[in-house]
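From the shared-data thread, chain only:
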Amino acid sequence: MKILVTGSTGFIGSNLCRALVEAGHQVRAFHRPNSSLRGLEGLTVDHALGDLTQYATLEAAVAGMEAVFHVAAFMGPRQTGKAYAVTVEGTRAVARAALTAGVSRLVHTSSVAALGVPETHQISLLNENHTWNFRPERYPYGYAKYLAELEIQKAVTQGLDAVIVNPGLVIGPGDQYRQSSSPILQVARRKLSVAVEGGINLVHLEDVIAGHLAALERGRTGHRYILGGENLTYLALVQLAARVAGVPAPSTVIPARILRILAGPLSLLESFLSLPLPADLFNLAGYYFYYNISKARRELGLPAPRPAEEAVRSALNWFIAQTS
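Structure, as tokens:
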């Protein structure tokens, strides 16, 4: 197939381009003129220069394509206006261009963040039916991804054949944009020696790529599919990273209520501090972001996900190789 990939130079996007090329597809990589092409090195792709906020460039990029993977989103520091323009309005523009061009299918890369937060701080498994339920200013990234999904659903009602995938925390080799901020690397460098109450779902990059390809072939129009791996407490995650890195394992857990109180003040000082995570995320301390992945396995035909240790080890080995 002739396939367009937005966000083609990012962590997921570049690896998706590689998988598509290896599968024999003709890939058009949409990216900004100043984007790093490191993730696309050695790949035979058609480069389409443009910006999600410039519709004419999207329209030209989508022309002649049979399918679109919309992977691009705003991932920078907190800038609510820019995040909305890129993530939400950009998704609206991609959907419009795909409808106009008559593409056969669009796969939208969302996030489990778009599903909102658990109803309580107790452990439970969220699924694709969960919806947004949190104050937008306390989780701007998740809210933007939720609004972007609404744009996709609006386009579906207009005739677009689109599927949504919701990855968990994606870990694996090649994450060039998080070399300094990755919690895995921070643990290995002994810069992160504590954990917080709560938990997260960690998924190997290769499982996420496989989920995208399966969604293209077998996903049901208008449906969400959680692409997840292991559900781990934050303490288990940092201890796993420490074990893989061969450094002392952290054992201290900071009470979630303390971080939630500090979230507001720290967000004002974030540009002057070296925090292990964005201050906005401190609002989410104490929640267990655990997910049920049975729908994706059942309907997309995905195998059991790779172990979290394999994901952490592959990511850490890559990070180390970049600095050696």
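The chain is about 40% helix and 20% strand.
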